[in-house]
Fold this sequence. Notes:
Residues 1-18 form the signal peptide. The protein has 136 residues and is of the alpha+beta class.
Amino acid sequence: MTAMACFRLQEAVFAALAAATSLSALVTGVYDEAPTGASYPYAAMGGTNLQPNDLKDRDGASISFDIILWSKEPSQLEVKELMAEVDRVLDKAALGVVGYSLVSLRLQSAAVTRQWNEDGSLYRGRLTYAALVYAS
């Protein structure tokens, strides 16, 4: 049951990000897994970790997950703007997690990394969130 919580939370987060017109104005897409050749900048779901957090009478889970932002701009400013917008969207979203009650969702950490590829450099922003959910 707890693995399903991870799936349902990702559905809700993805739907909130994909529906946010403010974010859509800044990125070329929001992806679970970006397609080969996706245009920059874009947002993608990253890794997920889950720990069971059951109560006596209900299944629960502590879930951490990453949202990854990619930018090809020559400075960190664009990726940081994207990170701020994703955080604003998730902070204001009333996420409906099917079959679960979302008790909390908070930003745990944020980081920007410069990466090199054959075309030059990219900036990768990573937002890590922590969520606590219990079965409804």
